[in-house]
Amino acid sequence: MNIVTHQSIKNTIATYLGFVIGAINTLFLYTYILGDTYYGLVGFILSASNIIMPLMAFGTHNSLVKFYATYPTQQAKAEFLTYLLFLPLLFIVPFSVVGYVYYQEIGQLLSQENPIIAQYLWVVPLVGLCMGYFEIFYAWVKVHLKSVFGSFLREVVLRLLVSLFLILTYQQIITPEQFIYALVLIYFTTMVSMKWYAYRVQMPAFTFKLPSNYKAVLEYSLYIILSGSIAMLLLDIDKFMIAQYVKIENVAYYSVAIFISLVIAVPGRAMHQITYPITAKLMVENKYTELNQLYKKTSITLQIVGGLVYLWILINLNQIYLLLPQQYTGGIAIVFFVGLSKYFDLVLGNNNSIIFNSKYYKAVLLLGVMLTIVTITLNMIFIPLYGINGAAIATLISITLYSWAKLYFVVHKMNLYPFTLETLKAFGLLIGLFLAFYFWDFPFHPVISIVLKTAVFVPVYLYIHYRLKLSLEVNDLMNKVFNQFVKSK
After folding, report:
1. What is the predicted pLDDT for the residue at 5?
2. pTM: predicted TM-score of the whole model, two decimal places
3. Are 246 and 391 spatial neighbours (Cβ–Cβ below 8 Å)?
4. What phi and psi values does residue 358 have, to the nearest 5 degrees?
């Protein structure tokens, strides 16, 4: 097993372990221990921190990965690393000065609807700073093929520290207010740990001399800031804007619903790790016939697998929310809307891989800027009208428009098309099975009801898709699993 495969497996394990811990924190510890006001405040702080993180890192974490191998000598690498460590100060210093001088004015602007925000606003830049430098030191070890420790820190340790401080809050050792302050300590601890490991992998030899291609590095970093900021805005702008229009408790309700919805995107992330290098190779070799076949296969496969996850969530959604405090039930519609946007994105298969390996990747950046403007505008319209459901509607519209715009480039500019007759059949089955399973539940405890309904639904879903042979890849996988099960008997 080579080092890349070995570390990929460990990173995958860390990601899913972190997801389980995150689920416990999000669905139970936060909701029952912290209360909806302070949980909403945590959601606002982390969303705002994520939005400014690309600026705090100044795009240098991506620049490090891109340029590190191009430097032939240790002296040149030392110049490069020193340059990247101090480059973020171009933003951090003026940002800190402006923030300090106009703190009261900024606090008043952002806390008009929720005065509690002003008291804790200083936490946002500190957490964002820790996030940014964590990514820089994480990139530091990635270029040395030592990514497991950083993945474990970010996915597992960070969430375990959150769990620990939530339990301390439950034990009344600390107050909910002190938990908010503890967020800085949590992110600072993971950042320092990442720095320690990065220096252990390679201690930098600081040399205050600009690298030969410092302008190219700066230009690329600025490009990454823009693209990274767009990505973070699309992920977190809704939670940030909710706090500007309605009570901050609604951020807590929205955060839980979003977490449930994001489960639908997991199969796409897993397949992306496999299809991205294959897509790049086919495009370099100009094998567009094979690429078109791969496009169709990934589309129908992700549609079936993503549809299974999406439907499982929808048909068990009422029972899932019975496990949560009653005030969180307002998030049911959000799961439907945001989940639908994630499902549509899965149906596009390896669309993103094709675009980012094509000459149209800069056009996608322009689309991202336009989408950000559309998203903010839609949130400004729908949140005052429909509250957190309005934020979900805005997300559904904007993400769907973005997905179809990217599809346009692939279909009309590259003559690749992901959909087949099987796409319509799979979508028809999705609707039919939703109607068949959504409107009934077992009259038992929610956990027992979920288990029983799953035991009926999953075999029916898989059997119908297997018999219709909508995806040969899915059928082959099911055959392998079934044969392994028979052999084990």
Report:
1. 46
2. 0.81
3. no
4. -110, 180
Write down the pLDDT at residue 377. 93
* CA dist., res. 272 & res. 350, Å (int): 7
Backbone φ, ψ for residue 417 (5° rounding):
-140, 125
Cβ atoms within 10 Å, residue 325: 14
pLDDT value, residue 284: 72
Measured distance CA(9)–CA(273) in Å, rounded: 11
How confident is the model at residue 228, as a pLDDT?
67
pLDDT for the residue numbered 4:
47
At CA 268, angle to CA 5 and CA 23, rounded to 5? 90
Residue 246 main-chain phi, psi, to 5 deg: -130, 175
Pick from 354, 361, 34, 26: nearest CA to 166: 34
Query: Which class for 330: exposed (0-12), middle (13-18), buried (19 or more C-beta within 10 A)?
Result: middle
Residue with tokens 């080579």: 2
pLDDT less than 70: residues of the chain: 1-12, 65, 69, 224, 227-228, 231, 269-274, 276-277, 356-357, 361-362, 364, 486-489
For residues 303 and 426, the answer to whether their CB atoms sit within 8 Å is: yes
Could you tell me which of 195, 187, 186 has the C-alpha nearest to residue 165? Answer: 186
